[in-house]
Design brief:
The complex is a heterodimer of chains A (about 120) and B (about 120). By secondary structure, chain A is mostly beta strands. Chain A is built from no helices and 11 strands. In chain A, strands 2, 4, 5, 6, 9, 10 and 11 form a 7-stranded mixed sheet that branches. In chain B, β5 and β6 form a beta hairpin. In chain B, the strands form 3 sheets. In chain B, strands 2, 5, 6, 10, 11 and 12 form a 6-stranded mixed sheet that branches. Helices cover about 0% and strands about 50% of the residues of chain B. Classes of the chains: A mainly beta (about 120), B mainly beta (about 120). Chains A and B meet through β4, β5, β9 and β10 of A and β6, β10 and β11 of B.
Chain lengths: ~120, ~120
């Protein structure tokens, strides 16, 4: 059974619209993350959360807003969507944050296409 | 600047051969280094990591990697390779100065092992 659930698996949106990507982890971890993989680019770090608190933000645009309603949830709201936002968005978690060299566990990703 | 280079986008070999996937990095100090694997249709899975100490680290599924500070490399090895090792392999770096789990990934190497 998958321990990190991302929904939906595929998402198609029109330019200018808003979408929410869902992530839930059932590993009992205290830290969660978002990574993005665009076409022809490596996976890149976006956000890290620890105990529902934002620890790191590597995303320049405020159009990307993580939302954590529970410790095991970290959704990603994206507003004013652009074609350049098309990518696969991966949620990940780790036992803790801050010690360094944490092992990340990844979800299967949400593939977003913006037309 | 921190970066990871996986120079081989594709590697093909026969079952039973030895595999070595190359990874080089750029970082001003000794980083934490990781290998992750993505099997077709699945999410990224942790294979192994280097933190400090022994330069050869052993991971899951019979893989090992050698950290070489002299040429800033962290190559992944396995012998013999099995057809089930066919997957995409990602090398990643985490800086040891600030920002937990903010991994920098390489582009990945797609490995095909023919039976």
């Amino acid at each position: 059974d998958p321990k990190i659930i991302q929904k939906p698996k595929y998402l198609v949106a029109v330019t200018g619209s808003e979408k929410i990507l869902i992530c839930e982890q059932y590993l009992g971890h205290n830290a969660m993350y978002w990574y993005r993989q665009s076409a022809k680019k490596p996976l890149e770090f976006m956000f890290s959360y620890s105990y529902q608190k934002l620890m790191d933000n590597q995303t320049a645009s405020s159009r990307f807003q993580p939302q954590s309603s529970k410790k095991n949830h970290l959704d990603l709201q994206i507003t004013a969507l652009k074609p350049d936002d098309s990518a696969t968005y991966f949620c990940a978690s780790s036992q803790d944050w801050g010690a360094g060299a944490e092992t990340l566990y990844f979800g299967s990703g949400t593939r977003l296409t913006v037309l | 600047a921190q970066s990871v280079d996986q120079p081989d986008a594709h590697v093909t070999l026969s079952e039973g051969a030895s595999l070595e996937l190359r990874c080089s990095y750029s970082y001003s100090a000794a980083p934490y280094l990781f290998w992750y694997v993505q099997y077709p249709g699945q999410s990224l899975q942790f294979l192994l990591k280097y933190i400090t100490g022994d330069t050869v680290v052993k991971g899951t599924k019979g893989f090992e990697a050698e950290f070489r500070k002299s040429n800033s490399s962290f190559n992944l090895k396995k012998s013999p390779a099995h057809w089930s090792d066919s997957a995409k392999y990602f090398c990643a770096l985490e800086g040891t100065q600030g920002g937990s789990a903010k991994l920098i990934f390489g582009e990945g190497t797609k490995l095909t092992v023919s039976s």
